[in-house]
Design a protein that fits this description.
CATH architecture of the largest domain: 3-Layer(aba) Sandwich
Strand content: 5-15%
Strand order of the largest sheet: 2-8-7-6-5-3-4
Mean pLDDT: 96
Structural class: alpha/beta
Number of domains: 2
Shape: globular
Largest sheet: 7 strands, mixed
Number of strands: 12
CATH superfamily of the largest domain: Type I PLP-dependent aspartate aminotransferase-like (Major domain)
Helix content: 25-40%
Distance between the termini: 51 Å
Radius of gyration: 21 Å
CATH topology of the largest domain: Aspartate Aminotransferase, domain 2
Number of helices: 13
CATH class of the largest domain: Alpha Beta
Order of helices and strands: HEHHEHEHEHEHEHEEHHHEHEEEH
Length: 400
């Protein structure tokens, strides 16, 4: 009798975490490595948020809390949804978990049965398909293309939906591409969903506030209010507030779904960190001024990376609307050979050779469901990004 569960054979470890760990190991061994794999801001958590956490500790707010969030945080989340998205929720429609990933996982575990399908546009965040598999569902990948800015078209969504479809997982701005859907583009997708009332929408809005060049974020239930009763709107404090390690994600949706998610959390992790919850209250209710300041830095870095990568023959790098990633295509480099003899047969071979020969760690595109590409996170210093892009330029120039 095998000791480990058969479920493990259906999933793989996170490639993005693997790249970050590899880069850290090489650095610890004294190698000159620039890691561009981690999806987290390099800014420190704002002082007002840290002060709120310290105050919570000193006030003894370190005990168990309600399973899916303290009342004060749920009220702050409801206020955020009204303020930013014109969505009305009550606290009993809100769930708070140990990061956005747990929110998504709880929702999938609460709703999926064997045979249920989940439409996932590609390129996708690496964890979506594996979470669907862990929950017993079947991922259905709908590939977006470079020609459409890596955005799914209504026709592609229509073709992916069957009578077995339970969810569409939607992410804008996107990890890994940074692509953001305009209101008109999103309306095209919601019109399709209105023709299929059995399909629910799980929208991952984690990068909502990281938007550039006047891009105006919108979320499905805001664009099409008739989807409100079958939408789970997911967000968190990790990206906009530089709170990745605090592990607070949240969602709002129909009471029955939120109650089911609460039941699962009550028998798995129970409540998220009490101190982190109080910090998140301050993040949502306090000043938002630093978001625009940080975005100016991200935009400058984005423009630097896009410009330098587009100088490379055989590489095409679109300019993303948001997040802090670029997702260049390397279609013109496939089949070439690196200076040290590695055949670039696919994007994984490209990323491996790039790390071994230049010390630049990126994540290969196959991990995100669309090749031949790679992802760079530009959430690091201008100097490191310039150095890394120069190394990539030299590596590609030496291909033959």
């Amino acid at each position: 009798m095998p000791f480990l569960s058969d479920t493990l054979s259906r999933v793989k470890p996170s490639p993005t975490i693997a790249v970050s760990n590899k880069a850290q190991e090489l650095k610890a061994a004294g190698e000159d490595v620039i890691g561009l794999g981690a999806g987290e801001p390099d800014f420190d958590t704002p002082q007002n948020i840290k002060d709120a956490a310290i105050a919570a500790i000193e006030a003894g707010k370190t005990k168990y809390t309600a399973v899916d969030g303290i009342a004060e945080l749920k009220q702050a989340i409801c206020a955020k949804f009204k303020r930013d998205n014109n969505l009305d929720y009550t606290p009993d429609q809100v769930s708070v978990s140990g990061g956005g990933k747990q929110v998504l996982y709880n929702a999938l575990m609460a709703t999926l049965n064997p045979g249920d399908e989940v439409v996932i546009p590609a390129p996708y965040w690496v964890s979506y398909p594996d979470m669907v598999l862990l929950a017993g569902g079947t991922p259905v990948v709908a590939e977006a293309q470079l020609q459409t800015g890596y955005k799914l078209t209504p026709e592609q969504l229509e073709a992916a939906i069957t009578d077995k479809t339970k969810w569409l997982i939607f992410n804008s701005p996107s990890n890994p591409t940074g692509a953001g859907y305009s209101r008109e583009e999103l309306k095209g997708l919601t019109d399709v969903l209105m023709r299929h009332p059995h399909v629910w929408v799980m929208t991952d809005d984690m990068y909502e506030h990281l938007a550039y060049d006047g891009f105006e974020f919108c979320t499905p239930a805001e664009v099409e209010p008739r989807l409100y009763d079958r939408t789970l709107t997911v967000n968190g404090v990790s990206k906009a507030y530089a709170m990745t390690g605090w592990r607070i994600g949240y969602a709002a949706g129909p009471k029955e779904l939120i109650g089911a998610m609460r039941k699962i959390q009550s028998q798995s992790t129970s409540n998220p960190s009490s101190v982190s919850q109080w910090a998140a209250v301050e993040a949502l209710n306090g000043t938002q001024d630093y978001i625009a300041t940080n975005n100016e830095v991200f935009k400058r870095r984005r423009d630097l990376v896009v410009s330098m990568l587009n100088e490379i023959e055989g590489m095409t790098c679109p300019t993303p609307e948001g997040a802090f990633y670029v997702y260049p295509s390397i279609g013109g480099l496939i089949g070439k050979t690196s200076a040290k003899g590695t055949k670039i047969v696919d994007d994984e071979a490209f990323a491996t050779a790039l790390l071994e020969e230049t010390g630049v760690a990126v994540v290969f595109g196959a991990a995100f469901g669309l090749s031949p590409n790679f992802r760079i996170s530009y959430a690091t210093s201008d100097a490191e990004l310039k150095d890394a892009c120069e190394r990539i330029q030299r590596f590609c120039a030496a291909l033959s």
